[in-house]
Amino acid sequence: MPICHAIAGNGLWLDGGAMFGNVPRALWSRWCLPDAQGRIELATRCLLVEDGERRILLETGIGAFFEPSLRDRYGVTESRHRLLDSLRSGGWAADDIDVVVLSHLHFDHAGGLLTEWAADRAPALVFPRAEIVVGSRAFERARRPHPRDRASFVPGLVELLEASGRLTVFEGSDIALLGPSFELSESHGHTPGMLHTRVRGSEASLFYCADLIPGVPWIHEPVAMGYDRFPEQLVDEKRELLASSLCPGRWLFFTHDARVAAARVERTAEGRYRAIDARADFGLGFDLDRASPAGGSIARP
Predict the structure, then answer these.
(1) How far is CA 272 from CA 19, 29, 31, 188, 232, in A?
(2) Which of 40, 115, 131, 230 could form a disulfide with 32 if both were Cys (CB 3.0 to 4.6 A apart)?
(3) Is the pTM higher than 0.70?
(4) pLDDT tens-digit readout, 49-106
(5) Domain 3-287 maps to which CATH number in 2.10.50.10, 3.60.15.10, 3.30.360.10, 3.30.70.100?
């Protein structure tokens, strides 16, 4: 049965107002403390799933492909490729990864596919053996972005993926594409065709939220980001996910929360959703044949 590991990618700092849309700063600053520029700290946390003989990596974070001025603009915390360093710390190399699944191709989710920036060489893909899975609508969005979100995509990445010979485009019907322990689904409020992976064990499941719920503060039902293309649709999709996550053993995995890797949710007497059993990390891994992951809980956010 699958064992899941939270793997840290490069962090970044983005404008808190953009991350919380029409939520006033007086409120969101209680959830995420801004710096002097009004930016909040964000993780780009990836999920490594060991499934028998395969190692499946859900997303790659922002990586270190930005040239220095863009790295500074987006507050990328390190010039090194932290995801690769984190994998090495766990005993894995880039060529140990069999499959990479991307929810979408925004730079903070797919930039880690690329080598570190260098003035004297073009970027290249860093997982030399991995099949790369992306949804068809998300891929087309990256190929033909709207002017509103063009800056969110990595120039040249579509062409590198197509030239690799290792690209698998998910068409939306083969939800068991990755095998019986995995279920794929899509949402469309953040960006068309965002791909989500649910990893299942005998006692628990883990749902990769991507930008549908970037972290614990976004569990609040009406909260959407300024980056969301269709915020009302996103809120509806989030409501459906949260309602289905009230069952015991259903965990949500957060890519952008600087403090919390995973949590369950409950509904309060007032009808609001909130995080419970928040986990800062998975310790030695999240065994989905148990109802709860390893690693200590943290105070309720």
Answers:
(1) 21, 20, 16, 23, 18
(2) 40
(3) yes
(4) 999 889 999 999 999 999 999 999 999 989 999 999 999 999 999 999 999 999 999 9
(5) 3.60.15.10
